[in-house]
Amino acid sequence: MASRTRNPGSEWLALSSPDPVRTHRAWVAGRLARLHSGRLWLAVEADVRRSIDAMQRIGPNRLGPVLVHPSADLAWWLVPCGSAEELANARLLTVHAAGRPLRCPPAERYVDGLGWLEKPDGSGRLTDPAVLGVAFGPGGRLPAGAFC
């Protein structure tokens, strides 16, 4: 089998797995891998439509990875560990506890309907929780007319 160059974003993602080798094997087999919130990042869940709006508000230079499952209307933002308290009052966001698994594809492709709207690039860049909270509006509510 020919040697494959690995994607830096996928390499970084695999580090959040308890078993990075198993993670890469799952991806090579075309399956999702179980990565764990709390190792390198926390996962913050929101709906897809509001997440796309928030991504536009934040801008490309300030985004960390954003995983989506469009058919389930779910998105997960990767934020720094320790961000849970800062996002506790954001009603439209759900912070996943450390240790909770997140089913993820590799950075470079969709698997079983899940893919990265903002791909991990291997740098470890994450979305600032304060910026994420503001993008979802005061108290977690988007301002009226945000989707007009």
List keywords for this structure.
7 strands, 148 residues, globular, alpha+beta, disordered C terminus
Q: Measured on Cα atoms, how large is the radius of gyration?
A: 15 Å
Q: Please list the strands of the largest sheet in the order they lie side by side.
A: 5-2-4-3-7
Run of helices and strands: HHEEHEEEEEH
How much of the sequence lies in strands comes to 15-25%
Share of helical residues: 10-25%
What structural class should be given to the helix and strand makeup? alpha+beta
**What profile does the largest beta sheet have?**
5 strands, antiparallel
Mean pLDDT across the residues is 89
Contiguous low-pLDDT stretches (5 residues minimum) are 139-148
Quaternary status:
single chain
Number of discrete helical segments: 4
How many angstroms separate the termini? 52 Å
